[in-house]
Amino acid sequence: MTVVSVALVLAIPAEAPYEPADAVTLVAAAAGPMALVWRQTAPLAAQAGTGLAIVATAAAGSPINFLDWPAWFALFSCFAVGGARLRVAATALAALAVAGYVAFDLGDPTAELPSIIVSFVVATVAGALSSRLTHAVAAEADSAAQSRRQALEAERLLLQERGRLARELHDSLGHTVNVMVLQAGVGRRVFADNPTYAHEALASIETAGRAAVEELNRLLRVLQPEGGRTPEPFAPTLADLAEMAERIRATGRPVELRTNGVELPAGPARAVYRIVQEALTNAVRHTPSGRIRVEVLRSGQQVLLEVLNECDPLAEPVPGHGLVNMRERARLEGGELEAAPVEGGFRVRAVLPANAAVAP
């Protein structure tokens, strides 16, 4: 637009009553379109610059030629990107530019007033419609972005829930099945020599199997709740810990359980119970004999959970589902977990916040 404006001044000689082009005319011809550089960042400055170029050209006695077009572009921009205050200020500046043009132009500016009015209306209406369209597109983009965020959040929650259910399946059913396998092996080996003990092993297998079916049904109800109601989550107690220890004893492994009268609230109790469960499962799976000591104690603002499997020295464990699940459960409760060989066996030790267990 600057090139066109300057070229018209140089190519078309001024006719009476206008004066020949001079330096002011050339500068104004270039400055008017160049003011549009600020039409997005400072539209009011662009409006003032284009209007000032028109007034300066008229005051210099030259025809405005192309300079009215940048002024209408600037007015359009003010209405397209600004609010009510900017539009009022831009309208005032445009009116001042028109007044200056009428006052200084050497020709008959009143003959151009109909064209000026039409251009003014087109610029303001088109700018307002552009602003409305821009806001509509922005609102649609925001809505689409919000929908994407909601979809991503739903996917994150779904993956989180899948992970939780996978941990529940691994810890609960994995533990029960391993105990059943061990009890079945013991029963098979002593079936001929000690049928009474073999009968007890079969009874323990039946009890464990029923517990596994009940646990599986509970998880299925979580996945597909009946009547739209989600069942209450598993809330183990000290009695459940004692029952779990008894199931391990039935496989032939001595288990010492020490809780010191600690009562477990519902939420953190699941973490404590599942960590002990996985630690006991790993102990009977990976070592054939030896005493297992379980301690759940309160120490100030922390709860200490320790499972020591007294066995021959073991290698550093390779992180599998069980170890990963134990650490994740401790992390979700705001605690931490260590699992490593120690002198005299293998130890799993977890430290949880005080709200993980409280004295009765």
Can you give a write-up of this model?
The protein has 360 residues and is α+β, with helices and mostly antiparallel strands. Among the domains are: 2-107, no CATH class; 252-360, Histidine kinase-like ATPase, C-terminal domain (Heat Shock Protein 90), CATH 3.30.565. 63% of the residues lie in helices and 10% in strands. It has a five-stranded mixed beta sheet with strand order 1-2-3-5-4. It is rod-shaped, with a radius of gyration of 42 Å.
Largest sheet: 5 strands, mixed
Tally the helices: what do you get?
10
Count the E strands: 5
Q: Report the CATH C-level class of one domain.
A: Alpha Beta
Radius of gyration: 42 Å
CATH architectural category of one domain: 2-Layer Sandwich
Distance between the termini: 84 Å
Q: SSE order, as H and E?
A: HHHHHHHHEHEEHEE
Low-confidence stretches: none
User: Rough shape?
Assistant: rod-shaped
Structural class: alpha+beta
β-sheet strand percentage: 5-15%
Write out the CATH superfamily name of one domain.
Answer: Histidine kinase-like ATPase, C-terminal domain
- Percent of residues in helices: 55-70%
In CATH terms, what is the fold-level topology of one domain? Heat Shock Protein 90
Q: If strands are numbered along the chain, what order do they take across the biggest sheet?
A: 1-2-3-5-4
The whole-number mean of residue pLDDT values reads: 82
Protein topology:
Layout: H1 2-11, H2 23-34, H3 43-59, H4 68-81, H5 84-104, H6 113-190, H7 195-223, H8 238-249, E1 255-258, H9 266-286, E2 292-299, E3 302-310, H10 321-332, E4 336-342, E5 345-353
Helix pairs in contact: 1-2, 2-3, 3-4, 3-5, 4-5, 4-6, 6-7, 6-9, 8-9, 9-10
